[in-house]
Amino acid sequence: MASQSSKLPAQAEEGFKDATSYDAYRPSYPPEAVEKFLTHLNVAQQPDAKIVEIASGTGKFTELLAQRPERFLVKAIEPHPSMREKLVQKDLPGVEVVDGKADKMPIEDEWGDACIAAQAFHWFATPEALKEIQRVLRPGAVFGAIWNAEDYNKPKSWPATTKWEQKLNDFVYSLHDGIPRFRHLKWKDVFDQQLPATPIQVIKDTFTDRLPRFSLPLGEDSVKWTVWLSEEALSLRLNTLSQIALLKGEKREALNKLLEEILQGDDVERNEKGEIAVHGVTYFIWTDRI
Question: Tell me: the pLDDT tens digits for 18-52?
Fold first, then answer.
């Protein structure tokens, strides 16, 4: 297959190189959240609906689409070679895996009944990507983005369930490399930037094809969850975050020391197996193509 994708950010290229570990230790999505999300996208209970999934990765969300009774037709777009190969190996029914990016998708105009970005929109929240997403969706179709956010990877304004998760969240924030992630919430700006500031700007935008492409305000919903992980499983899950995966030397030692310290705290809840309660939320947004 010829490559359709331009260069990925180094943080994504290197941070997600170990596609096997990513696939094994990144979480799936709660059934309640998936049902709500697809309902808001107007494709739940719609047989043979056509779905464009951008940055499908190893197929954590793609698998759920392929298992649905609607028998969706999915074009799964993924630019990262290792992740794309892992997804191809799964040979999911109704899924065509395609090499491409959010701003350059080899899909015909107005093909999709919905477009989905799972755990990924923050990587390509640009006007160019919105224009391309609009192009591949039929009029009135819906674009949606969904994320799993553990308390240790949440936005600063969201409260953590426990002290240890907040301390880990503070550490994750300290690793900022200039590339916005979901937790920074900068991805929302691309929708707000659609709105012209003045009546004169409206006229200019009309002639330069810069009118809003998606509806505002965004629809938003979320589902809270708790999972039980061994200390090893927690460490492996943490390592699926691109910034954590790239840690070496003193920074890696600092993370290991922090984990050892905070997991001895009195606010760490464990079950009879010694597994730790890890809290989080599945958060999702949706917006109509104009």
Answer: 677 888 888 999 999 999 999 999 999 999 999 99
Measured CA to CA, the distance from residue 133 to residue 286 in angstroms comes to: 13
Give pLDDT tens digits for 199-217.
Answer: 554 445 544 556 689 999 9
Would you say 100 and 4 are in contact if contact means Cβ atoms under 8 Å apart? Answer: yes
CA nearest 152: which of 252, 276, 28? 276
CA neighbor of 150 nearest in space, from 276, 47, 49: 276
CB distance 98 to 78 below 8 Å: yes
**Which residues, in sequence order, are CB contacts of 246 under 8 Å at separation 6+?**
11, 14, 15
Pairing state between β 137-150 and 276-288:
antiparallel
C-beta atoms surrounding 4 within 10 Å: 14
d(CA 251, CA 117): 31
3-state secondary structure of 128: helix
